[in-house]
Amino acid sequence: MNKATFLFFLSLVVFVVSSCADQASNAEKTKVGDTKVDTNRLYKVVVSYPKTDSTRFDMEYYEKNHMPMMARILGDNLHYYEIDNGDIETTNRPVYVAACSFYVGDMKLFTDSVSAHADSVGKDIPKYTNEKPVIQTFTTKRFDKW
C-alpha cells in the first residue's frame, strides 16, 4: 500500500471513530412498524465519488467485485448496503458519479474491519475509479410511511 492510500484510510478511521464517539450514549427507541428499533445504534457510512471531466468509474466492477468484497469484510455488522449510480442523463450536472451507503450496527467494529483490510481495499479502488472518495457518517432514524 502506498503512503497516500495508507494515510487516506487512517484518516477515514479517525474521522469515523471521532464522529460517532458520542452517539451510543444518546440511544432512543422509536416505534417502526411493529418492532422497537434502537435508532441511534444504526449508522450509515456514505462513500461518494466526485464526478469531474476526467472521472473514470467502472460501475460493473464496483457492483460485482468491490462491494461484495466490502460486505465480506464487514461481516455480520453490515445490515445492508446500497449503491447509487449518479451517472444518469439529467439537465443538471451531477456532483457525484456514484455513492454507496453501508448500514452498520457498530462503528468501532466497522472501523476495525476496514482498518484490518485497508491494504486490500486500497489496492482495489484504482480498479474501478481514479477519484478519491468522500466519506461521511450518519446516525439514522427510520420512519415507515403511515
TrEMBL record:
<protein>
    <submittedName>
        <fullName>EthD family reductase</fullName>
    </submittedName>
</protein>
<keyword id="KW-0732">Signal</keyword>
<dbReference type="InterPro" id="IPR009799">
    <property type="entry name" value="EthD_dom"/>
</dbReference>
<feature type="signal peptide">
    <location>
        <begin position="1"/>
        <end position="21"/>
    </location>
</feature>
<dbReference type="InterPro" id="IPR011008">
    <property type="entry name" value="Dimeric_a/b-barrel"/>
</dbReference>
